[in-house]
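## Example record

The block below lists the input lines for one assembly entry, exactly as stored, with component labels intact.
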Amino acid sequence: MSDLGERLEGYRREVEAALDASLPPETAWPATLHRAVRYSLLAGGKRLRPLLVLASAESVGAAAADAMPLACAVEMIHTFSLVHDDLPAMDDDDLRRGKPTCHKVFGEAVAILAGDALLSRAFEVLVTLPDPVDAERLRRRLGVAALLASAVGTTGLIGGQVEDLESEGVAVDAPTLERIHRAKTGALLRACVRGGALLGGAGGDELAALDVYGAALGLAFQVVDDILDATEDATRLGKTAGKDEAARKATYVTVHGLDAARRTADALLAEALTALAPLGPRGETLALLARRVVERRA
Amino acid sequence: MSDLGERLEGYRREVEAALDASLPPETAWPATLHRAVRYSLLAGGKRLRPLLVLASAESVGAAAADAMPLACAVEMIHTFSLVHDDLPAMDDDDLRRGKPTCHKVFGEAVAILAGDALLSRAFEVLVTLPDPVDAERLRRRLGVAALLASAVGTTGLIGGQVEDLESEGVAVDAPTLERIHRAKTGALLRACVRGGALLGGAGGDELAALDVYGAALGLAFQVVDDILDATEDATRLGKTAGKDEAARKATYVTVHGLDAARRTADALLAEALTALAPLGPRGETLALLARRVVERRA
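Predicted structure tokens for the full assembly:
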């Protein structure tokens, strides 16, 4: 593994430990809820979003540790969205990260509440600061909490999921598809990059460059997701494959075709990498993450 | 109406206007979600929680306007919990505040997402501050956001709902019942009182007195709710009556009997009013709210 790869693996292990420490133990009251929340959050996964936060903070010269609360918060938000999306009333999925989904194990009611708890806990982690703290750090934390809430809200992740559900079985044009994806998966990914940079004190040109990177990466992620759904099987995906087609969902593959989707992913990767150029060597970890997003197989 | 009553009614109108202004219009993308969120949040109701926030801020000499973002946030949290509690997988209720529940109008998927959006928006409203802001106000906002998140989380409202669901059809003893209620309804009511006071800069004795008030009021609220569920009909309640008995839920009435429940409510009201005594006339609005909670008929 390259030095960069090792650094990312080190970050991933730190994220796992921080996530574990961010939740009450399974034995704490109410045990059922804590079991469900831990089952969902600590199920492994690539931890792309926390790694983006840490790499983005690093890219502007900040210590990754300062960004760890945000790293935990974005993974909680991501997991909350998976738990709710998998519910019978939504995508009705039985399998996630190779394991039975939360509602299959704990029932629908607890799964709804476990998602709620993860969403709430994400903000709790983010707004809890040890005293004494200087005004500038307080201001950054509040700003990042507002950024995250906006990324989750009615014009972000949650809004995108609503339009995605409404578009099932409906002919969707390319602009609509892009709007859904920018909201449903792109908003949180962009907030990871921008949030890490803001916590690190970035401004001006650095922030603008990272915003371009985040937008390209966010869209690339979804394009690749659509390619994988169309081409991989469930064993490799760790979730039900071919679901998009079965649900007659519009994807980059159904709207543009497989070849065009692959060309789009490559173009977005190039755009993301170009945006990082002004950051020099400090942007290398972000560059590696972008390559992994586009070149992943599952 | 008394002067105090008129002041409360003025606050209530200000809260309605602030809630309305805190959400995007129904026409904004995605329209379905914004319609569902506005339908649920702007359905009237007594607005007890926002009024507690404003009255608590007032009781420590602060301007009610400074506490309005928290007032909106707590009503959003309250509404989120109602929307999710009413879902078929939970209490499966068709009627709320005299109107069809969110999932009856918009379907289950949108109702789940509307609840999610309200929870997220609550934090967004709370952590969004206009620049420039002094460090002390930043610190108070973060502290109150953490308090609110804790009141909602796994040992607060959401945790209480989990244990409440698990206790259906099970013999529940008095300490368990009290733990459920302290979490499910008490935690948010206490946070309203404490949060309003913290935003107003309260500390020491004032805060301690208001914590006693908030705890007594929170428990009294649930005891009275149980009494009303056992004695009122659906028309007056605006929601399905007798549901607790039908679901074989433990309540103060089923565990202690109706007379004892009424005596408990009166004793808690006395405790709440006694706690306010050191605040003098500034505590009068909180006193009126406590009386209304215990003496309400529906």
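Chain B is about 70% helix and 0% strand. The domain at 3-295 of chain B is CATH 1.10.600.10 (Farnesyl Diphosphate Synthase).
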